[in-house]
Amino acid sequence: MRNTALHYFLEVARSGSLSRASEKLHIAPSAISRQIAKLEEDVGAQLFERQPTGMVLSAAGEVLATHARRANLEQERILGEIQELSSDGGSLISVASTEGVARNFLPHVMSTFREAYPKTRFSLNVAIPKIVIGMIKDGDVDLGITFSTKPSQGVHIEYSATSQIYALMHRRHPLSKRKSLMLADLQQYPMALKEEGSTQRQLVDLCCQMEGLVLNLVLTSNDSGSLHQFVFHSDAIALTSKVSEQYALQKGGLISIPLLNAELRQRNVQVLTMAGRTLPINVRRFVDLVTTKMAATSLS
Prior knowledge:
This protein is α/β, with parallel strands linked by helices. It is 45% helix and 23% strand. The chain has 3 domains: 3-65, Orthogonal Bundle (Arc Repressor Mutant, subunit A), CATH 1.10.10.10; 88-144 and 272-299, Periplasmic binding protein-like II (D-Maltodextrin-Binding Protein, domain 2, 3-Layer(aba) Sandwich); 165-265, 3-Layer(aba) Sandwich (D-Maltodextrin-Binding Protein, domain 2).
């Protein structure tokens, strides 16, 4: 199967149109179209459905795209391991993560990993769960970490554990001496929450609806760092998870208290890789470290 044709095919699949693929590849749309037509002739199936909004992979196209992405990554893995043998271990590990995990947990784990493998380089893309999963499926990153309220489809789940939601507050807060809380206990205090659409907010809104609760929402943001700084300087309460805050809490000032509502325990933190892919040695080492650290966090 032609490497050039597969390259063009994957770019059209990624961009959704011949014109956008042409801009990215600096190749005439007609040349890309001819290569895809030859590819369709080779496989004996239509690879795209031409729609008004663009070109969408057919069922056969989805199968070929998955194979082609996996083959590209396998080639990169083999070349990377050969280069690693001749360059004392320098390699790049690409990660996509939701914001809560990226802010404290991942920098700590990356730093720990580089103590053992100092030539390792990282790239970190922070995105919402849907985009993180898409980047894993497309082979754009080596691993993804995300929160999810349901099992992620089309990827390999390296690790999954319930991510309990905690109330985050200043040590001077009136509720700070409590060992555990219910969401109803927070109603009389100012709240700083993630914006609507986040997995955390979805569960909080569901719990409020089921229990008839009304929270005093004074700040919403898509940036948990801003929420937590607001909590540090006020009597407000934010919500967090253990994996998001375990290292930040060591600095003092804030504490976290578990919320025991059953509705708030329907979210998992997941470590994801591409289904069917053999990971490069250094990526496998890092995935193993991430899962070990996460398991230790859930037990602490």
